[in-house]
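Example (one chain per record):
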Amino acid sequence: MTPPTETVEGYVIDVGCIRQNARDDLLAKARQHESSCALMGHCVESGYGIVTEDDRVTVLDSEATPRVVDVIEDSDTTVGIRLRVERVERDGSMETTAVEEVSEGERDVPVEEENPT
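Predicted structure:
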């Protein structure tokens, strides 16, 4: 049986900034989150989350951090970096398997949960 997977697409924001902002303001803050903040040492150490256009927050596993950092460092976008994250369930938790930047012209991919048998 193939483990469940999901695709999450939205704005990347570090967990430190997630904690500092009111929940009602989080989507707006994520849209304006600067890459320079996301790459600060304490922000990298805090890990990352994705805030979707429908205002859902997904905190990524710690294994995602180096992948997210690589994408942010390689990006020409300095404010409001949008990522698409692929995740798979392993041992009862979701683990990140791929991270890529979503270019300006791409549409949001609906969050998918697959349970193939």
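Caption: The radius of gyration is 14 Å.
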